[in-house]
């Protein structure tokens, strides 16, 4: 063997070049953040345009960092919808905050895979500590077992896999064929990821009951009971209920204490989807929303939604880690270790590989502190409530749901016009015009069949003036009176 | 509403502070990389130590970046297994390369969610372009539809969900209950993520057939045929075969052309797990390993394994995107858009949220070029082959599998000692001693029941001297003669 260093040309980027590139990219990051208000928040491009601007084949020879960054500026930035823009008020508005970005840099440099404790003790243990911090900040049990996944879709799928196994049918060994039909319950307002998890798990659409909600978009517990009774009478096997704290459309809060009673009575797993609203509970005045959640078997909430952590970072908590192990633990020889007393995260999920996501969440807590996080949540809710009040005061605007948190569902509704199809047409057009402005980006939904616009506050740089600008744009696009000063 | 800017105390980190923190963290990254050889590659800590070093509760007040970085150095670094260390030769060795790290910085700053084309056109289209580059670099069909997921576990689960739906039993609507038992085939050497996917999908352990492999750790196609025949005779429903190109233990290559014939004959979905070895095909002399893969229905290969891309980045290709849509597409009102002709990535997976992972892979291609990538793959294979030769020349070492790529399976086997239990005891002890050195980190596996050590080359800074050091450590730990000079 050759004792000499591998040819530099076959190694990674040389150290001095890396330092220079870090400075260039850092400068790019800072500039992007400082100048983001000058960019249209919603991408103004058309399908295929970016693809056509890029070469069909990869380069054979390497190119310097300047060349890549130029393409980022010329090709990528103009085709981005800028989620990290203060005017982003669609879906759930998020923030990739400065400490979160810095944390992601550290974890990328580590480049570790936390499949086993041994392959990254610090990843495994920091994740547990930071999730305990998070639970404590929300007033949830710190005794819960926590794990970080990429998204709530994964968290819910993993939780419901454990729930399916906990139903006592030995699905892990036998499979679902020849078992009674399993049934999952959630409200009609539940997120599509719940249906998708059930599809993957083999319940089929027929195994999903979307229970109607009341006027406040809360699951009707009486109807839940009825459905369970019907399924039991038909020899089907109810196994889990998904309650939502902060539904995707209207941020409704299901009556978790009553649902927990139903689950206890029937021996069903209770999974809570608090992906958006869970973080609100970091401010004590919003802890009411998590009432009863301490009785859940599992709960998901996403720091990448409303805790200023860069995507992706979803927190899955459970009171029953053994159920997850029962569903998932499967240790091939090449992953056996001798570390006794250690938790191997691979035993709790279908996923083996795990990025070190805890660092960014840790840095977010370290920089803002829980007081600072609570103040920011509070400020966002305040902006939302001001917007809701303005809607309520305007004769041609109508609010369609309570504004518990930082999301407002509303529509343009000129007095006397009550044709739903025409209202949908008007609001669709208003949405198109508002979003074409480039200043703000709103989204839409339907509530009880009625088309409505949604404004969500969640970016740390969003100001009162931005929210007011959104309202002015809605009014001018609709041709109705401007909002009162 | 207050027109003024939100109180600075309620915003994100101020711009000047962010620039200073970027410089500090960049310096941390560069130093970590420059000094990594001074760190023991395998963490020298014990379970619970990191947890105890961290406060049980989050801070109420924020702290400056210096405080977090100090804790990274004092608490986290000593409890890390350093995957980005040139002495990391366990499992599959990986590299979080400089261009990959820089790319991750950009995508973190964007903080976009690519669930819909509209929510990030550039993410959707760059991902397609870069995956086409990757397919082209490996000699695979550029007409394939590609998507990036976090890990091969997810890629395989998503692919097999599509496969299950493509079996024509309408599982999506009806669920699995009352359907014939579905059966999945893979070799006994297949990765545990295949079993886990089948468990999640509701096949149960009974629905998984691990087909024996031959002396080169290749699936026995004759036995595959026999098993399929038995299952059909028993009214079970075969639906998919997973072939592996580069098995986890021995990097064996299943006979994909023959398996594809079997799949065609029986109408089964062919999924190829090339998570590790797929990238080898960027060097044309290793394209033989992917022979027949152009006939696969889906194929996964991980740039975060052997293409120098920071974790997580798994590429899932398919010739049948419609099957994925059939399994997964489900569009709630709040995600409806008017962008005709656009691809919405959420329609192809159970996951809604998607990080902008394509940037780092794009930068890797831009910096190294395909020639540069091929040379590096070639160099790693060269280092592996030199190690294999040294093992073959040593009277007390034994190789246990062909070294097709950069992984060598071997053991200490003193002449005349043939008791397997004793050999396992010796090699377990050798592994413990080698890994305690801090210079290199090897892993182990069992092949045909025989315990063996594994050395994997995959880090860009690994030199011939590092691989030689591993061999010397094995010999000295075993008390056998040092390797020939």
Using a beta-carbon cutoff below 8 angstroms, give the protein chain pair with the largest interface and the number of residues from each chain: A-B, 186 and 185 residues
CATH topology name of the largest domain in chain A, in short, is Aspartate Aminotransferase, domain 2
How would you classify the helix and strand content of chain A by structural class?
alpha/beta
Alpha plus pi helix count of chain A: 15
Oligomer: homodimer
The tally of beta strands of chain A, per DSSP, is 11
| Binned strand content of chain A | 5-15%
Largest sheet of chain A: 7 strands, mixed
CATH architecture of the largest domain in chain A: 3-Layer(aba) Sandwich
What are the low-pLDDT stretches of chain A, counting only 5+ consecutive residues below 50? 1-6
Query: Order of strands across the widest beta sheet of chain A?
Result: 1-7-6-5-4-2-3
Would you list the SSEs of chain A in sequence order as H and E? HHHHHEHHEHEHEHEEHEHHEEHEEH
The share of residues in helices of chain A is 40-55%
Domain unit count of chain A: 3
The CATH superfamily name of the largest domain in chain A is Type I PLP-dependent aspartate aminotransferase-like (Major domain)
- Determine Rg of chain A (CA atoms, Å): 25 Å
How far is the N terminus from the C terminus of chain A? 79 Å
Q: In one word, what is the shape of chain A? A: globular
On the 0-100 scale, what is the average pLDDT of chain A?
A: 96
CATH class of the largest domain in chain A: Alpha Beta
